[in-house]
């Protein structure tokens, strides 16, 4: 559960991948599709300035899918730098749709004002509940480091960075292991195949991303989502899984207001609830301490991914904003079901 918005606002940078104005061209106010996106013509997958370009195939694939568009003059301008709001808009097009919730006062005061009145305002507002927000101004260039952070959030895998906290292994010549904020972002993004290094052994975290590179990352994001969340999970199963977890969390945390682990275990046993003790330990271990602060649970209307990972076993990942204390967080729940209708909440290794 890493790379918090709190860190971004106070020290680090949480990035986001968006690509709209330039990947879509010139502003077209009042466009209904996103109300907040700029889009423009050129439906043909062939652009007059991409023939022979190293990313021509990737650009063609993304264009045919309707994810990107070119300019009125038939060009794509593959070497043109991408801004944060543009990259953010691209990500919004690839990730699953979600309703989202109203950003809290901290988010409104800290991260949304910069986009107020811009074409990207609704995109910023929408992705805020998923904890996907850029660190700088909407018109700032998107860098490789920020792209890595945002992409990890977009696939619900920011917590992968915890594996590298405190590591002494040096992956890149230009990235010090002393810079933990960069390590826990770059290392997982690299190991997961989201962003690669350069032949000279560098990562170049501050390099700006151009339109061609952004398209490659967009296609890679789409492929990575399919890889990380396998299995055919039906809409009814998704709804039942979400209901099973959200109703349990809401019951014990909000309705029953249980705050001690022993009381939680006793409550589950007394009411014969379909929840294993392993599940409780994975998600409510903070209750075992006399004094604690806990990262709040999602509202379950944020960015969600579902996967079927075995015989009658499912996985549900929620990427969300957990308040000033938690920041941007991804939380994964495991469930089992024999009929796809009723679900039991279980531990990861059950």
Blueprint (SSEs and pairs):
Elements: H1 5-10, H2 21-24, H3 56-64, H4 84-94, H5 105-110, H6 121-128, H7 144-154, H8 180-191, H9 211-228, H10 235-255, H11 261-270, H12 277-284, E1 303-310, E2 313-321, H13 323-326, E3 328-336, E4 344-346
Antiparallel strand pairs: 1-2, 2-3, 3-4
Characterize the structure shown.
It comes from Brevibacillus formosus. It holds the Pfam family SLH. Keywords: Signal. With about 350 residues, the protein is α+β, with helices and mostly antiparallel strands. It has 2 domains: about 5-230, no CATH class; about 235-345. Helices cover about 35% and strands about 10% of the residues. The chain is built from 13 helices and 4 strands. A 4-stranded antiparallel sheet has the order 1-2-3-4. Helix 4 runs parallel beside helix 9 (about 210-230) and helix 7 packs across helix 8 (about 180-190). The chain is globular and about 70 Å long. Mean pLDDT is about 85; it is low at about 1-45.
Main attributes of the structure:
alpha+beta, four-stranded antiparallel beta sheet, 350 residues, disordered N terminus, 37% helix
Outline type? globular
User: N- to C-terminal separation?
Assistant: 22 Å
What characterizes the major β-sheet?
4 strands, antiparallel
How many domains, in number, for the residues? Answer: 2
Count of alpha/pi helices? 13
Main structural class: alpha+beta
From the alpha-carbon coordinates, what is the Rg to the nearest angstrom? 21 Å
């Amino acid at each position: 559960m890493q790379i918090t918005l709190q860190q971004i606002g106070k020290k680090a940078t949480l990035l986001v991948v968006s690509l709209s104005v330039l990947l879509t061209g010139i502003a077209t106010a009042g466009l209904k599709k996103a109300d907040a996106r700029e889009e423009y013509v050129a439906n043909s997958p062939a652009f007059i300035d991409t023939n022979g370009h190293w990313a021509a195939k990737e650009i063609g694939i993304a264009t045919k899918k309707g994810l990107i568009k070119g300019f009125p003059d038939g060009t794509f301008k593959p070497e043109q730098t991408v801004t944060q709001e543009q990259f953010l808009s691209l990500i919004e097009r690839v990730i699953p749709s979600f309703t989202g919730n109203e950003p809290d006062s901290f988010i409104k005061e800290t991260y949304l004002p910069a986009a107020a009145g811009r074409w990207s305002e609704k995109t910023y507002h929408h992705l805020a509940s998923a904890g996907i927000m850029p660190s700088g101004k909407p018109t700032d260039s998107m860098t490789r480091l920020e792209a890595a952070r945002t992409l990890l959030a977009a696939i619900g895998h920011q917590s992968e960075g915890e594996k590298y906290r405190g590591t002494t292994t040096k992956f890149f010549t230009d990235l010090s292991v002393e810079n933990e904020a960069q390590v826990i972002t770059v290392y997982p993004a690299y190991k997961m195949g989201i962003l690669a290094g350069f032949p000279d052994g560098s990562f170049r975290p501050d390099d700006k991303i151009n339109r061609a590179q952004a398209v490659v990352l967009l296609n890679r994001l789409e492929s990575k989502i399919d890889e990380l969340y396998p299995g055919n999970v039906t809409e009814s199963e998704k709804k039942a899984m979400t209901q099973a977890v959200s109703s349990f969390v809401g019951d014990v945390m909000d309705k029953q207001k249980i705050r001690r682990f022993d009381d939680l275990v006793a409550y589950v046993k007394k009411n014969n609830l379909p929840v294993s003790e392993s599940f409780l330990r994975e998600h409510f271990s903070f209750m075992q301490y006399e004094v604690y602060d806990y990262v709040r649970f999602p509202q379950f209307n944020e960015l969600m991914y579902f996967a079927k990972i075995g015989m009658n076993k499912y996985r549900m990942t929620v990427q969300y904003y957990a308040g000033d204390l938690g920041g941007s967080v991804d939380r994964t729940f495991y469930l089992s079901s024999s009929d796809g209708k009723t679900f039991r909440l279980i531990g990861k290794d059950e």
